[in-house]
Amino acid sequence: MKRRVLLKLSGEALAGEKHTGFDEPTVTKVAKQVKTLVDQGIEVGIVIGGGNFWRGRSSENIDRTKADQIGMLATVMNCIYVSEIFRSQGMMTAVLTPFPCGEFTKGFSKDRANKYFQHNMVVFFAGGTGHPYFSTDTATVLRAIEIEADEILLAKAVDGVYDSDPKTNPDAKKFDEISIQEVIEKDLKVVDMTASILCKENKRLAGNGRIGVCGMVAGKCRQRTKSINVTQDVQPVKQIFSIFVPPLFNAHYLPELPEHGTFQQD
Ligand code: UDP
Between the CA of residue 136 and those of 71, 132, 224, 255, what are the distances in Å? Predict the structure, then answer.
């Protein structure tokens, strides 16, 4: 069985210094890094946030359900864009959504995702969970469970798990090891609370799954040397997260680009 990872990119990670919209050089760098995974035979699923365009909760005047629908559509735009950049770098891709988007995307199902993975395609899980009041963090964990991913990689602007924000607190303590229970109790936001609880309650992640935090600032995935295990203390021995340096994600080797991907979607 091939190794399968689910990579979560924030919307902001696509915007670079502009903080909004797309920054093509930044996204191209991400694409090149992901290509190193694909070229190693690793199956890569991607969830992308929408913060470079819109966040449902940031609107004070419109109905939250509608605001969240706009947010979900922002994630679809992000996935279509990043998918195309990936194709320009020689990868084959598919964009799946939990709601119909005409011919722009395909509907999500586990079987369809598996089929695309078998064809060495990068599969984008766009549109979040398809429901308001959720986030793409929750969509990440949900899809990871559904597609039986081996691990989740979080590309974040910080390089690990801290007890407070290291950008504002120079004395922030970085954890070498932490339990999912502690992540929840201390509200550490490795992923948001709903997603954390989903991790805690899921037997598969409790047994095998790992979450890697891969520091990413302006599209650069920084090399890290230390690894953190986030353990599941409810079921000792088993790990739920392993916050670790994904060595596979250090783009030390960039192979020649193959021909543009042309796999025909069904
Ligand atoms: N969103 C949603 N349901 C989901 C995923 C996302 O309603 O399952 C909406 C929500 O409005 C959110 C926006 O899409 O603010 C962008 O998603 P992201 O996870 O980036 O939002 P954040 O957590 O940063 O607000």
Answer: 10, 11, 25, 31
Cα–Cα nearest to 248, from 230, 223, 228: 223
Nearest CA to ligand 1 atom 16: 50
Q: How many CA atoms lie within 13 A of 19 on its CB side?
A: 0
β-pair type (151-156, 210-217): parallel
Out of 55, 99, 138, 189, mutate this one to test ligand 1's pocket (max ligand atoms within 8 Å of CB): namely 55
Distances (CA, A) of 28 to 1, 82, 106, 237: 29, 8, 24, 40
pLDDT of res. 165: 85
Q: What is the pLDDT of residues 194-243, one digit of tens each?
A: 998 888 777 555 444 445 554 443 333 333 323 344 444 332 222 223 33
Ligand 1 centroid distance, CA of 83 (Å): 19
User: Residues near 189 by Cβ (< 8 Å), separated by ≥ 6?
Assistant: none
Below-70 pLDDT ranges, the chain: 156-159, 176-177, 179, 203-266
pTM: 0.82
Surface-to-core class of residue 187, CB atoms within 10 Å of its CB (0-12 exposed, 13-18 middle, 19+ buried): exposed
Nearest-5° Cα angle at 27, 21 to 33: 160
